[in-house]
Amino acid sequence: MNFKKIQWIFLAAFALLDIFLASFVLMNTRFVSMGKQQTASQVVMKEMKNDSITTVNLSGDNRMGYYLAAAKTDDNDELQAHQNQLKDQTPRIVGSNFTSNFETPLRVDKANPQVKLNQVCHNPKLVINGDQYTYNAHLSTSKTIVYTQKMAGQPLMGPAGLLRFRLNDRSEVVGYTQSYLNPGKVLRPRQTTISQKQAVIALYKHNEIPSGSQVQWVDFGYSRLLTSGNHAVYIPTWTASIRAKNTGKKTRCQVNAFTGLVMKNGGQSINSSVTDNN
Q1: What are the Regulatory protein YycH-like domain coordinates in residue numbering (predicted)?
Q2: Of 48, 22, 75, which Cα lies nearest the Cα of 232?
Q3: Spatial distance between the Cα atoms of 157 and 41, rounded to a whole number of angstroms
Q4: Cα separations (Å) of 186 from 51, 72, 77, 205, 236?
Q5: What pTM value is reported for the model?
Q6: What average pLDDT score do residues 97-102 get?
Q7: 141, 165 in Cβ contact below 8 A?
């Protein structure tokens, strides 16, 4: 084997080695970069664990949502205008709410009340616009079964747009209280929101989750951001229920799903919570 042939073999070997090393460096840089992206949330979740904070399984998937405009307050006019269609009950206005008592209490399965009440909601002779509401197990209690009005396919997370069925001591539905918002109008095209996990991290960073607390649930829906004239702007939010370890007190906190800022109750600023007695 002559020298020139050996030289070419070494050159080819070195070229292959260079290609291998370059590929290794590029791949290693990519993995380091990906690791850095994951580290921020991983570090916070580890801090939460060290603070004895427990959570439900949190999704890292982003959602989509709109800026919506709706009536500033509940539209009782809509409910009053159609109350004559209701049968087997006595409807009336109490304060700012539309309320009604059934002539005959409705028996429901205490463990799965929505099985019967879904049928009730879809009967226009029993509930006005009831098909626009969906069962919310997280807001329901042993005495009240809560349905939330849907806006852009998601539940309203606030005092407006609620349908609350009242139960007696025999777990029978004796009536309901209803508030209603006219469906919201889209103000801007659909946008990406933060994930469920990012929302909880935001709450933790703003000291909304004390040490030893339990994050019981984190739901996606629409909440009022601000009001302008006779209309209000609604945005996608993450609403979390947090249970204190020492007192057992439950608090509801909301995060703007577009910006990641913690919201005041129905308002624009950050770092506030809403007491939840459910």
Answers
A1: 38-258
A2: 75
A3: 26
A4: 41, 15, 23, 31, 12
A5: 0.78
A6: 93
A7: no
